[in-house]
Design goal:
mainly alpha; about 0% strand; 4 helices; about 130 residues
Amino acid sequence: MNTLIELLASILLVAGGIFAFIGSLGMAHLKDFYMRLHGPTKVSTLGVGCILIASMVYFWGLHGSPSLQELLITLFLFITAPVSAHMLSKTGLHMKLERATKTGGNPRELREDGGDNPAPPPEKDVVSEDNDA
């Protein structure tokens, strides 16, 4: 088999492992549900996608034809992960799960008035208009 194909598969495997590890760290160390949602749905999806593409590249080089099953699994993963993340976050909003103070935004589902009044504009940091420094 071509050394270039093996090198590409190895790079994708290492990148996939790093992304999956970062996603699992984020899930373990972030403070609330909304922050933890980003780890498995974004970073880990990219990690598993890299691993599947590495497998597809390796077996394409080994057998001489692409693996349709691995391509379909990868596409299914990239299509369903954002949908499931959206559904989980909307469920968390409707259940009014507690948020950490660092979690930004003021969704109407979590407001005390039930969302009838529009949210106040976010407070902006006062920045000096003098940029002479």
